[in-house]
Amino acid sequence: MATSDSREVVIEATPAEILDVIADVESTPSWSPQYQKAEILESYPDGRPKQVKMTVKAAGLTDEQVIEYTWADDGVTWTLVSSGQLKAQDAGYTLMPNGDKTRVTFDMKIDLAVPLPGFLVKRTLKGGMETATDGLRKQVLKVKKS
């Protein structure tokens, strides 16, 4: 059964600064606790990641996932290529500039391959959504300061 969620956050940065942090996938485990490891398998000509292999730990399960990114000036989306625990995953960030800030909307839809209780799926997805928005905001602000 597919489960989806959406969350918004305002980040005091430009869309380009935010996309640069998202594109630094190898640093994702430092600010997103679900991600244990991230390795770029293939990049686009501009250097942004195209296919990435990630080790993800959520709801007590560890999964190896390969995802493929599609980049735009106003956001990024990704779709699942392979996984042991998921049938499907589609997610992405939509960025809308608002003065010197950017409104960031994160959408995610997952379809589990393994049966888990609904409350556990919702709680795990909620934690992932918080990290994908609030965690991203903290990381962008940290990178901007350095």
Task: Outline the structure in words.
With 146 residues, the chain is α+β, with helices and mostly antiparallel strands. The protein has one domain (2-145): Alpha-D-Glucose-1,6-Bisphosphate, Chain A, domain 4 (2-Layer Sandwich), CATH 3.30.530.20. Helices cover 28% and strands 51% of the residues. It contains three helices and seven strands, in the order E-H-H-E-E-E-E-E-E-H. Strands 1-7-6-5-4-3-2 form a seven-stranded antiparallel β-sheet. Strand 6 and strand 7 (101-112) form a beta hairpin. Helix 1 (15-23) crosses helix 3 (118-145). The longest helix is centred in the C-terminal third of the chain and has 28 residues, at 118-145. The radius of gyration is 15 Å and the shape is globular. It starts with a strand and ends with a helix.
Write out the strand line-up for the largest beta sheet, numbering strands in chain order. 1-7-6-5-4-3-2
Strand content: over 45%
CATH superfamily annotation: START domain
Uncertain spans, ≥5 residues at pLDDT below 50?
Answer: none
* Helix/strand order: EHHEEEEEEH
Which radius of gyration do the C-alpha atoms yield?
15 Å
Question: What is the name of the CATH topology?
Answer: Alpha-D-Glucose-1,6-Bisphosphate, Chain A, domain 4
Structural class category: alpha+beta
Overall residue-averaged pLDDT value:
91
Identify the quaternary structure here.
Answer: single chain
Number of domains: 1
What is the name of the CATH class?
Answer: Alpha Beta
CATH architecture: 2-Layer Sandwich
Number of strands: 7
What is the helical fraction, as a range of percent? Answer: 25-40%
